[in-house]
Amino acid sequence: MKSIAISGSPRENVGKRDAKGLRYQGLVPAVLYGGATQTHFAVSAADLRAVVYTPVVHFIDIDIAGVKSQAIIKDMQFHPLTEQLIHIDFLLLDEKKPVTIEIPVKLTGTSPGVKVGGKLVQKLRKLRVKALPKDHLDNIEVSIAALEVGKSVKVSEISLPNLTITNAAEDTIVSVTTSRALRQAEQEAGKK
Questions:
Q1: Listing from the earlier edge strand, what are the strands of the sheet with 140-143?
Q2: Is this structure's pTM higher than 0.90?
């Protein structure tokens, strides 16, 4: 899985007034937890753009005053009106502990059901996957090459080595449904 490096500065004061002052300076208050103690720090909002506003999942190499850690984003809070990032939580990664991450689904192949006029409906764009950090993938490929009209691919049909998908087994990832044009064509053929 890809990594992005960001650097932060430790926060001396923790509270609403301090956080508001940081945001005014273009910084985002952040917390790194999962270790022996929580680390409160501030990171530039510009540095976080490449990590937050992307569908790709990244490991984040955080440098806080010379102390380096590898983490993932666990939670983000946005302002309700401006949608500006106002707080971010990171979870420290441990090579021996499995971690749950939402990984994007990548559809591969061409569906024969779509070729005859069916409509491709992707219900899940990400899957929750639990695994050791070294085993995580950039994306999960789901083949739609065998999908006819009325057929679907469910979570239970996906098996990946060293990974456990925690979504419900009966959840549909992608399906091909009958489109309005195909339905009308079938009705026209039935009238003749």
A1: 140-143, 99-108, 126-131, 164-165
A2: no
The DSSP line for 147-190 is: --TT-EEEGGG---TT-EE-S-TT-EEEEEE--HHHHHHHHHHH
Q: Residue 27 is which amino acid? A: L
Handedness of CA 55, 119, 108, 154 (dihedral sign): positive
Dist. CA 177–CA 111, nearest whole Å = 11
User: How far is residue 168's CA from residue 1's CA, in Å, rounded to a whole number?
Assistant: 24
Q: Report the pLDDT value the prediction gives residue 1, as an integer from 0 to 100.
A: 73
Half-sphere CA count of 47, side-chain side, radius 13 A: 19
Burial group, residue 71, by CB count within 10 angstroms (0-12, 13-18, 19+) = buried
Return the pLDDT at 192: 64
What tokens appear for 111 in the block?
A: 């569906």
Position 2: which residue type? K
Tokens of 183: 């339905």
